[in-house]
Amino acid sequence: MPTLRFLVPRLYEAIGLSLSREELEEILFRLKCETEWEDNEVYIEVNADRPDMFLAEGIARAVRGLLGVEKGLPNYNIVDSGIELMVEDVPRRPYAALAVVYDVDVDEVFLEELIQFQEKLNETIGRRRRKTAIGFYDLDAVNSKRIVYREVRINEVQYKPLHGDRVMTLEEILRETEQGRLYGSIALRGDRHPILQTEDGVILSAPPVVNAEDVSVKPGTKHILIDVTGIDWHAVENVLNILAFTLAERSKSKRVGFVRVKGVYEKVAPQWRVSRIEVEHRKVVEWLGVDASRDEIVDALLRMRHGVETLDDRYRVFIAPYRIDMLSWVDVVEDIAIGLGYERVGAWAPPPEKPGSLQPLRLFERAVRSILAGYGFQEVISFTLASCDKQAEYCAVPKELLVKLANPVSAELTCLRVCIAQQLLELASRNQHVVPLRVFEIGDVVIVDPQYPEKTRVEKHMALLIMDEKVGYEDIQAIVWGLVRALGDEIKLVKEYEHPLLIPGRAAWIETKAGLEGFLGEVYPEHLEKLGIRYPVALAELRYDKVAGFRTPRP
Amino acid sequence: MEITLSPGERELLEALVKAGLVKGWRLDTREVAKRIGFDRSRVEALVRLLAEKGVFRIEEVEVLECRLTSEGLESLREGFPEERLVRILEELGGSASVEVVRERLGKLYGPAIGNAVRRGWIRVESGVVKLVSRGEVIEEKKVLKIVAEKGIVPRELEHIAKELVRRRHLECTRKRLTFIEPLVDLSDVLKKAVVEVGVLTRELIESGAWRRVRLRRYNVAAEPPQVYPGRIHFFVEFLERLRDIMKELGFIEYDGPLVELEFWNFDALFQAQDHPAREVHDTFYLAWPSKGQLPDDKLVEAVRAMHEKGWGYRWSSEIASRLILRSQTTAVSARLLALRPKPPFRAFVLSRVYRPDVIDATHLPEFHQLEGIAVEHGMSFRGLLGLLKEILSRLGIKEVKFKPGYFPFTEPSAEVYVRIGGKWVEVAGSGMIRPEILEAFGVEAPVAAWGMGVERLAMALLGVEDIRLLYARDVEYLRSRPVPWNVFPA
After folding, report:
1. Which of B300, B302, B317, B398 lies 20 to 30 angstroms, CA to CA, from A35?
2. What is the DSSP letter of A86?
3. Cα–Cα distance between B315 and B278 in angstroms, integer?
């Protein structure tokens, strides 16, 4: 979720109402925002579905609406800018659009907000400029009615990049500037890259990388020319609408100029095209569970800055083009809930119609826990993430059976575990001040298994470990046998078992009647030495998900 | 007088009485030990305890312990060399030449002449030894006699013993002795005493001897040694309580795979394929195995249609079949909804999810979510908020507020905040599953859904400051944490 920073007086100036901080915070909370105050600054976390609120004026529009100061659709003057955008074939980034917002009057503070608006849009719906990217220009500095979007050879074009101190070729810009390095590869096609320029050759920018310094927006800029480029027309138009019709709130004349796109495709944008969604009154009441009156609902929609027509059994809702989050009737219902306030919706838990239940294996787990606690074992919990190397070594499985992460965050957490014993051994090495140590863990392990659609299966394991001055096979055997007996189960099979972790002749594989299976034994001193453990250790690990009767019924 | 005796003390007194040492004697412990056949150290320890109880007086005495050398023994038997010189002179008529005397006395000549002269018994003049007065060694002989009998020199005779040491008649060392002396009649003490024991043993019970003993009183306020019970992990107890609450509210528990297809984790939940949550910063991808198998075509096509219509892009089944570690338990809800549960159907999942977060005091790469869905005719947003409040109130949380939020798969959505210890904590995301998704799955009733961050809730309720402590590797910490029995309402 993007966090925006504003100067407190600027935010109040945009909202134009006298509200206490608490009141403002409360109203922003209702608009999905979290607020943090810091001296003269305020940080507002806006939800990603409301990019029209990434600017103080956009927040103000929503706040004034919810407070009932300004209701319904806003009004802007849509005029012909007289500008034409000639689009040529740009294979890696085909779409471009322009808009003009007049009488914005940029000062230093607003310039920062403008850049923040641009950056947050680029990061979120722009998908780090890959999907869409934005440029702002001083309309008077551009001083041309015909703009061209085309691909050029990067060594044939040169301009002074934004905040740059010299004219560079585009090749140099891509290679040497920070923006070039970050975004230079997005639209580059061999030695070609898209640019935006005036008909007479003045470079505006090389989208989606960096604008030209000479035509950039500066304090004192009156009218702003906006460009949006991208890989999808719908997305480009959405972003252009958000920009133009939110910056329009800042315009003294509320004037937005559209631009004709010509060339490989023909469009006119931005357009104040209000979309229409109809929703039945009954649906609203059912979905929200609130018995709100028609008037309340209409008022809620108006406060959310929508237009409404009331029909017999339904509402026809008109949605401004900057509200790109409104996909269907249910989005309208959410806005009604927000307009009403969640407090008004209320909360009431319907009583259950059918009894609940736990997974059958939970009761087994609870029994195991109480038996092992009775034997003096302390339960521990480890991550299911573990080290690939250690798991492969101590769990005695080939590496192909381990689930391996592509993007681990730590060198110690690179695979899902296939056994718990390895983690208990590591825990033992860290707890040599707690001898005698008796610990157990119950949990999931994951093993590669091509039979399943997920190519893996989850097994439920329990592992037990004893570390003491003197401990051996019999000690762990006594506990395991006792556990099996206490569970009303019976050992069905015991055989000598070879496991690289365990001493030959002091390790066994067991299976029980109910379906428990696993190994137990004394840990080979070489492993103890390697882990720095100075005491003998005996351990066991049993799989229990095959115990009969663990199936959860299909819903 | 009534006194309490330990079994050891009693044994000593019985031995003394048996040896006739009932009263009116004074002996050192070494002697006592010898007479009753005990170790001296045991006698020492026991009489000190008995002295405190007023049975004995103890006196520590420093003595000179000596033994006779062969010279000493000879002097004791034959007389001192100077005495023997006197006897020779008397025999020879009061004087004799040096040569004669030397011949008679042999190696004793030197000490005999020297001591006799020092005592003024003889004079030696121009080669002749003359008897002056007839003397006898009395004191020295007495000391030799005492040493021969007792081995100890009384303090008033120590100066003579020293002289005898110089003359190599004695070898002496200083010793401390403990003299004991009964203050009361010991057989009397035994008759009246009560025996006290520290441990009640099987032997005492079986022999009936417990009737004759008294159990020692404890300092009941003294700090005992620390012993720890075997314990269920405190966080597990919290998880189990959550499960019980969900069951009480009519929810059936389910779980699903930890390695999940993107399809179930994202696509089925209307999360666009280029949604930021699907990037490597927010989801664990797998190097092995990396590709899974999509469910049946009908469902896949329904999901494709939902995406292409709703978000306007070309949906890729390639992306949807990639494998990840489940980043939200909602993936299990998606699987359940795809089974078209018959309403009313309430299900919950309490299991692990994974996010590529670096471990610190508030983040772990894996944690638990409590996922719930309620598929019911008549289920509403109000019902959802009610269920959440109910769950939280059963955890003892009364202050709850709902903030409008955004999740791609729910509308309306609410983030759930609770106040614990004066602090508002965000604990859950929730909402009504979008009708587009229900349609794709063929579910006929509205579905309320939520995912709760369990660790956060546990930290707030159990007062754990650092999330890592929930997975603590230090057993000392785990076993010394109190059981959270009183955290939740009964």
Report:
1. B398
2. E
3. 14
Helix then strand then coil, in percent of chain A rounded to 5, is: 30, 30, 40
Residue A391 CB neighbours (<10 A): 25
Residue B321 · residue B290 · CB < 8 Å = no
Cα–Cα dist A495/A392, whole Å: 23
CA dist A207 and A133 (Å) reads: 7
pTM over 0.90? The answer is no
Helix boundaries (H) for B38-152: 40-52, 70-78, 81-91, 98-105, 109-118, 139-150
Beta bridge partners of B187: none
Using CB atoms within 10 Å of the CB of residue A500, give its burial: 0 to 12 exposed, 13 to 18 middle, 19+ buried.
Answer: exposed
Instruction: Give me the tens of pLDDT residue by residue for chain A, a chain 555 residues long.
Output: 889 999 999 999 999 999 999 999 999 999 999 999 998 999 999 998 899 999 999 999 999 999 999 999 999 999 999 999 999 999 999 999 999 999 999 999 999 999 999 999 999 989 899 999 999 999 999 989 999 999 999 999 999 999 999 999 999 999 999 999 999 999 999 999 999 999 999 999 999 999 999 999 999 999 999 999 999 999 999 999 999 999 999 999 999 999 999 999 999 999 999 999 999 999 999 999 999 999 999 999 999 999 999 999 999 999 999 999 999 999 999 999 999 999 999 999 999 999 999 999 999 999 999 999 999 999 999 999 999 999 999 998 999 999 999 999 999 999 999 999 999 999 999 999 999 999 999 999 999 999 999 999 999 999 999 999 999 999 999 999 999 999 999 999 999 999 999 999 999 999 999 999 999 999 999 999 999 999 999 999 999 999 977 777 777
User: If you ran DSSP here, which 8-state letter would residue B220 be given?
Assistant: T
Are A357 and B473 within 8 A, CB to CB? Answer: no
Tokens standing for residue A539: 């351990």
Burial of B177 (0-12, 13-18, 19+ CB in 10 A): middle
User: Hey, what are A420's tokens?
Assistant: 């718990």
Answer whether B20 touches A (CB < 8 Å): no
Joined together, the tokens standing for residue A90 give 């740009």
Is A37 at the interface with chain B, CB within 8 A? no
In A304-416, alpha helices (H): 329-340, 342-345, 360-374, 388-394
Q: Judge whether B79 and B52 are in contact, CB under 8 Å.
A: no
Among the partner-chain residues A377, A403, A450, the one whose CB lies closest to the CB of B286 is A403
Which residue in B288, B342, B382 is closest to A289 by CB distance?
B382
CB contact under 8 A, B286 and A405: yes
**Residue B182, preceding peptide bond in cis (omega within 30° of 0):** no
Tokens (6 digits) for A396? 């005695």
Out of B294, B382, B479, name the one closest to residue A345 (CB).
B382
Nearest to A162 by CA among A213, A221, A216, A226: A213
Evaluate whether B452 touches B427 at the Cβ level (below 8 Å). Answer: yes
| Strands (DSSP E) found in A115-191 | 132-138, 146-153, 158-159, 168-169
Q: Is B227 on the interface with A (CB under 8 A)?
A: no
Q: How far is CA B405 from CA A1, A315, B120, B421, B429, in A?
A: 11, 24, 126, 24, 8
Q: Does A234 touch chain B (CB under 8 A)?
A: yes
Residue A2 burial (CB count, 10 A): 18
**Beta strand pairing status for B252-253 and B345-354?**
parallel
- Judged by phi (left if over 0) then psi (alpha if -120 to 50, else beta), residue B179 lies in beta
Contacts of B246 in chain A (CB under 8 A): 356
- DSSP assignment of B166-179 equals HTTSEEEEEEEEEE
The answer to whether A48 and B408 have CB atoms below 8 angstroms apart is no
Contact B405, A1 (CB under 8 A): no
Amino acid at site B104: R
Q: Does residue B282 belong to the interface with chain A, where contact is any CB pair within 8 Å?
A: no
